[in-house]
């Protein structure tokens, strides 16, 4: 579908797409596709107040009933999957299958959250005092601010929103300024689910705010937004985290990743190459879980690099809407400039660069480049710095201990993996002396996490967890309660205080 058809299919009006102050361009061809209105910073106090009012109603709706809203959202997403996936491609530049895959991830988290709405379990705890019952329960916290990035413009919102809603919290969403149209489309889709849900949902349960740093700051700074889930760069997290902590709010941070794969001598190289290529160049290297460092045993490095270089040279680059394209555009010229600067820096540190050149022929415009494979003499400062582009740095190792040290010796700690057929190596990598990342895989790449497991990482990745497992606890407050149903009043720890 062309740009206009995609927008029309999703119900955008001419008034929504014109006359505003925020220009939206497509990375596919650099074309301007909309000029939309931004939320005035002066309106943010009212937005937050409305969210607080919605919270006072939504928290009293039973959790399984709240789950019904998320079930309806999943239905509406299914009905809109093709169109929303096409809009992800238009606005973020992902190839068609990845755009559709992102919407499928939204559907999956809705399914997960519906079941979770009946499993917000607490604990009953044995009390040391006779005639007493002790328990832990979980309660809604209040408005959840979601600040999302361009590379997963809708999936990250759904991870947070599906869980926040079932936990009893309203949502205020600030999307990336690069991808506001996908957010507006999601607001329309959620609106249809809310209309079907009925009067149990209060007004302003979900609000979309569009704009720059001043809009984000208003959410981050407000004590009336107790939860902030922010996805973006480590630099952004270093600004957000102290502000939220200073007001004793809760942050869920998903920040930088500098993900590595160890390839052991016993690895199935054909499988490893398939895993490397998708993980390193999928989404044009613009995933937080993109493979950026390849740590290969010295006995197989030359063979692996030769095969990888051949695989890289065969990758179709171009319009992401065309069947067969595997590498779409970078998000903009700034990303392409950053890629060229990183490659120049790697060369200055002794790197041997394969690929990485800008592509101007056979593409519709925009910022395109061939993925780069860079053989490095060691883990230099350039290698330790995340650049959000398709550059894969290759290093060699001798012992597994050395490989794990290289894997861990970066500031970030999101995703990691090892390819090996040796069970000792695999289990060591997954043990306490192995990977220090939030995600650790064996014989699959670092990219492509499923929603059933909590997603997030350590160190400069921020420590947050979203999506499945027990991530719902990040959106609720825990309360310990003790009930004395006896006729006595014994004190804990045997304390005597008779009056």
What does this protein look like?
- With 499 residues, this protein is of the alpha/beta class.
- 38% of the residues lie in helices and 20% in strands.
- It is built from 16 helices and 23 strands.
- The protein has a seven-stranded mixed β-sheet, sandwiched between helices. A five-stranded parallel β-sheet has the order 7-6-5-8-9, sandwiched between helices.
- α1 packs across α5.
- The relative contact order is 0.14.
State the major sheet. 7 strands, mixed
Shape: globular
What is the helix fraction of residues, given as a range? 25-40%
Distance between the termini: 81 Å
Query: How many helices does DSSP assign?
Result: 16
Strand order of the largest sheet: 12-15-16-11-10-18-19
Q: How many β strands by DSSP? A: 23
Q: Provide the low-confidence segments as ranges.
A: none
**Compute the gyration radius: what is it?**
24 Å
Task: Give me the secondary-structure category.
Answer: alpha/beta
Q: Could you report the average pLDDT, rounded to the nearest whole number?
A: 97
What is the percentage of strand-forming residues?
Answer: 15-25%
Write the layout of secondary structure elements.
Elements: H1 3-9, H2 14-17, E1 22-25, E2 32-36, H3 44-58, H4 63-79, H5 81-92, H6 96-116, E3 123-125, E4 132-140, E5 144-147, H7 155-166, E6 171-174, H8 180-197, E7 206-208, H9 213-221, E8 227-231, H10 234-246, E9 250-254, E10 259-263, H11 269-281, E11 291-297, H12 301-313, H13 333-348, E12 352-355, E13 358-359, E14 368-369, E15 372-375, H14 381-384, E16 391-397, H15 400-408, E17 412-413, E18 415-419, H16 423-430, E19 439-442, E20 454-455, E21 458-459, E22 466-467, E23 476-484
Parallel strand pairs: 5-6, 5-8, 6-7, 8-9, 10-11, 10-18, 11-16, 15-16, 18-19
Antiparallel strand pairs: 1-2, 3-4, 4-23, 12-15, 13-14, 17-21, 20-22
Helix pairs in contact: 1-5, 4-6, 4-8, 5-6, 5-8, 6-7, 11-12
